[in-house]
Amino acid sequence: MSPKLAGLGTTIFAEMSALAVETGAINLGQGFPDEDGPALVAEAAIAAIRGGANQYPPGPGIGELRIAIAQHQARFWDMPVDPGTEVLVTAGATEAIAATVLALCDPGDEIIAFEPTYDSYTAVAAMAGARLRPVTLQPPAHAADIDALEALVTDRTRLVLLNSPHNPTGKVFSPSELEAIARVCVERDLIAVTDEVYEHLVFDGEHRPLATFPGMADRTLTISSAGKTFSFTGWKIGWVCGAEELVTAVRTAKQFLTYVNGAPFQPAVAVGLGLDDDFYAGLASTLRAKRDVLCDGLRAAGFEVFVPQGTYFATVDIRSVGGDDGLAFCRDLPKRCGVVAIPSSVFYEDPATGRHLVRFAFCKRTEVLTEAAARLASLAR
Ligand SMILES: Cc1ncc(COP(=O)(O)O)c(C=O)c1O
């Protein structure tokens, strides 16, 4: 008998982080910031622990946070949701995605997603006995091939799982692409699940939730989390918003995954969601400057760089610096120049598709990125 998830453990992140520790290299592999988020938000969590918010919170999440999430959706995306029935707090976006797929997919069902995909998608599809059907985003433009998407729809298609802003490419799906995806969902009567964890990390273009397109409000589950927006990735507070019937199904799955999570972090995230516009604008402009430091450095090192419109990540084609095996390249990079990156092949159904691509994270202090750029420059010599 072969275990259900055999071969799916993405050990590459652990391998590369271990390599960073072993060699003292700068870790631009896994996407987590090296600075804490707003002190006000951290203080709210400390106050919540001191104030006794340490037992099981209510199943759907505390009312204060669900109201803050609903207000956030209305304030930024003009997307009305009822905090009483259409919002569920989860253990990060990861649990929201897992609970959604487990709640909605039967064995044999299919989920269409644009690849490269965030690594949990394939794994949760496998847990549900479902299958991920990828539509490849081809560099340099990473344009969404809507004909290819439509061609994959069968009577087994259960979900379209859309991640925008997109990890690892940094693509922000354009309004016309979203409109076309929405049209396919409506015409083929599909449920959409959107992973919008990078909703506030947009530098070029504009983020718009798929749920706000015609015909989508009742057939979309919108997922996000506090990790990226507030730079507290370890708190694992996420949420899912959508029609009551769909959210209730997800809540049932969550009930038997974690039941509840993060009692003292929930009120703190509610404080974060209420921060003023300057916070959100500052977040994007700070990260844009970091993106530019890293991308300039990668270009100077000789890489072809696919400049991201959003997220924490920049992807390069390594063929311009010699070699076409990203995995071997990443295993060698710490020794060659003291920097760790992730081979993008792990984000593709067929690793050969992304063999020559490598991802670098830029959610690090500017001096760290400047030092990484200086080290990478040695590749050009
Ligand atoms: C596209 C995407 N979705 C979900 C997550 C996980 O979010 P959370 O930490 O809230 O579970 C990540 C984290 O890297 C991500 O990149």
The gist of it:
With 381 residues, the chain is of the alpha/beta class.
Note the topology.
Elements: H1 11-23, E1 26-27, H2 39-50, H3 63-77, E2 87-90, H4 92-104, E3 110-115, H5 120-127, E4 131-136, H6 146-152, E5 157-163, H7 175-187, E6 191-195, E7 220-225, H8 226-230, E8 238-241, H9 244-255, H10 265-273, H11 277-300, E9 304-306, E10 313-317, H12 326-337, E11 339-340, E12 342-343, E13 357-361, H13 366-377
Parallel strand pairs: 1-11, 3-4, 3-5, 5-6, 6-7
Antiparallel strand pairs: 2-8, 7-8, 9-10, 10-13, 12-13
Helix pairs in contact: 1-12, 2-10, 3-10, 4-5, 4-9, 11-13
This protein binds pyridoxal-5'-phosphate.
Task: Kindly describe this structure.
This protein is an alpha/beta fold and 381 residues long. The protein is 41% helix and 15% strand. The chain has 13 helices and 13 strands. It has helices spanning 11-23, 39-50, 63-77, 92-104, 120-127, 146-152, 175-187, 226-230, 244-255, 265-273, 277-300, 326-337, 366-377; strands spanning 26-27, 87-90, 110-115, 131-136, 157-163, 191-195, 220-225, 238-241, 304-306, 313-317, 339-340, 342-343, 357-361. Strands 2-8-7-6-5-3-4 form a seven-stranded mixed sheet, with helices on both faces. A four-stranded antiparallel sheet has the order 9-10-13-12. A hairpin with a 6-residue loop joins strand 9 and strand 10. It is globular, with a radius of gyration of 20 Å. The model has no long low-confidence stretch (mean pLDDT 96). Pyridoxal-5'-phosphate binds at residues 31, 92-94, 118, 163, 167, 195, 197, 225, 227, 233, 236, 238.
